[in-house]
Amino acid sequence: MDHKDLRKWSGEAAKWAEDYHASLRERPVRAQTTPGVTAAKLPEIAPEAAEDMAAIFEDFKAIVPDAMTHWQHPRFFAYFPGNASPASMLAEQLANAISAQAMLWQTAPAANEIEEVMIRWLRDALGLSNHFTGTIHDSATTATLSAILTMRERALDWKGIAEGLSGQPLLRLYASAETHSSVDKAARLAGIGQNNLVKIDTDFENGMDPAALDSAITADSAAGYLPAGVILCVGGTSIGATDPINACLDVAKARNLYTHIDAAWAGSAMICPEFRALWTGVDKADSIVFNPHKWLGVQFDCAVQFLADPTPQINTMGLRPEYLKTQGAEDIVNYNEWTVPLGRRFRALKIWFTLRAYGLTGLRERIRNHVSWANKVAEVISTLPDFTIATAPALSLFTFQYVPEGQNPNEATAKLLERINNDGRIYLTQTLHEGKFVIRVQVGQFDCTRDDVMMIPKVLSDLTRGS
Ligand code: PLP
Known about the structure:
Number of helices: 14
Shape: globular
Strand content: 5-15%
Helix content: 40-55%
Bound molecules: pyridoxal-5'-phosphate
Number of domains: 3
Number of strands: 11
Structural class: alpha/beta
Mean pLDDT: 96
CATH architecture of the largest domain: 3-Layer(aba) Sandwich
């Protein structure tokens, strides 16, 4: 296959993509397959001889789509969305066509400069103070790992990266039980240890209790630990919990601790000024992550980290050997020095395309609709026999339980969830909240309509009527 063939097959792929997206409402949302079925359709070993693209494309159509869960399905209400607006898909195609490795300014000047401008556009769109700069990572997990490595090194006065952790004081990090497992993972990978990530009690609204944070730091300092940083969440994964950002940042700042806010999902909603009260005080944070690849419509993968001052992170992760220097431009921003990998994709292009193709007004309208439809659908579910809302909508996420008389609610809810996802019209997932197995509903798919959302109570009624 050469570049002339690529033109022909790109055209075929575009036609297939249009038909695929048009067919989504007729497809079951969650893949209706079992482990091993797809692998068994592939030969045991790689082909020796080149194959015709027509045959490869036919196999793709026969094997892949039916064995995929359709994240762009308008009735995908599981996890959080992984939205890919058509404009961001186009940008990815163009970035693929150029296929640059954007590790340094000089290896991809446009990619680096558009990244700088997109960080500014997004910072302003989210209403953040103009002292923030930032960068793009693949995922929130990597951004959080970067922030936690920075917390570690700042607390150790950069001795960890030079000498290793052996012989250094034992560090402590603080987060609430509602923070995402990526924080636990980062504590493990950073060599701090998961047991030194202290989970602070939450108050009755499921946010971190600032007084408990203060006491934990005092107790740890007295016991000889070195507190290094606080990780706060805005819109946690399980039920959308948010820590009281202002009060917790005040506690952390009074102790000179580095702070990171995980707003991976909810950050996108901050393009709407009316939701910003959720993170009042955010401008005092050192680091903030949000995923435009979740709710904003920028194709996966794309995680934006805002930094009040990039220097501590660059001091922690940046290396500039001779072969990575840009002759005559020592002051140039090379984003690989801000992030874990050296190699970088041109992710800023899809942000640029998305913001321009829909405008902030169009994106705000989508998010406002999702929040309002989530509230409406929670209200309808609360009126269905045997259903209770377990946690009220946090933005567009809520949870419910199925509690038929005489049955164990956790078991009944789990069984119902399997029936919902086998039915295929909608896709929902579960969480455990205060010992209860509950079903999560998040409304946020880029193309979903009010009718798609109202399919949720219809499916619940259809599956439980007479049962
Ligand atoms: N933080 C929160 C609140 C999340 O919901 C998620 C994923 O859903 C993550 C972090 C991890 O995101 P990523 O897949 O970009 O690493």
